[in-house]
Amino acid sequence: MKEIKDIIQAYQKALAGEQRMALATVVKVEGSSYRRPGARMLVTEDGRLTGAISGGCLEGDALRKALLAMHQQKNKLITYDTTGEGGSEFGVQLGCNGIVHILFEPIDIHDPNNPVALLERLQQNRRDAVVVTLFSTEDRNAPIGTVLLANDADDHFTASSDVNLSSLTEDIRLAKDSRQSFLKEVLLQDIPMEALIEYRAPSVHLVIAGAGNDARPLVEMADILGWEVTVVDGRATHAVPQRFPRANRVLLANPERVREQTDIDPLTVFVLMTHNYHYDLSLLKTLLSTPAPYIGVLGPKTKMERMFSDLAESGVCIDESQRERIFGPMGLDIGAETSDEIAVSVISEIKAVLSGRKGSSLRLLTTKIHDDIPTMR
Question: How far is Cα of residue 95 from the mean position of the Cα atoms in its chain?
């Protein structure tokens, strides 16, 4: 969601400056590519680029194509082939060795459902969403573009196109239920097309219990990733917003009230680092029954064992599924010592857990780094 947030900020700035703009979206990849379908980049008429559609090899030509789309006020699908020597200027330097299809859409600022306006609605609530983008690699005159956003609890769809998309309703629900993106071959207005049905999860919400100085690097790194950050502490001298300018919220609360003041969903993660054993223990007890997928506890393994023992003595039985969500000592084993290094370790472990990865070296992988987005027929 960080890329989307940056694009929205650039969009608002361009609106204020009365600048034209276009949105570039990777809609399909064949073979290898630096970015996957769903990667986006906003281009303004003064040449500013926000977001990324490659590792840098395509951006120069993409700027020219975006400016052309602005001038013609027409959506364009451009294909970049980096599989042979002929594509050397575009990506063979990175070993991409793939075919990348990129959709360029000039933004109509008067259209309340223009592509960036639809993306802006992703920020309005913490709900799963699906974005549908139509394109055709066979018929360049087909109606293409970012045409629909589904982010309402009752599956209310916001469409930016007159094309009847009812045939995609079940596919949109499948994407939301499976939390997966995929390509779908469709026949719309008797034209064979493809739809990028893109699942978008809410941003990660990191709750840091502990407003000491060692929490600052965690706040800053989470902010760089576009995560929402809440800092909570029971000490009025520490829970001060001015100490954490990049946090979304700073709360003064005892451990029993943290849950009352925090909406906890499957993308809300906790780090317990108050340096107050009883505060951390009480908070851990209240979090066991929540859907939080990660609860990290700062400190040595002996502290974690003591917490489990104290909870058991108080009559709290921790089952295996709950224990799997508790990480103590928290963080990946990278030899971290300073607070900055520990923050890198902890943020990396949270990302690995949420991605279902082990956090090991990429060179040990026997498969591709990223899973291919499947095509449904």
Answer: 25
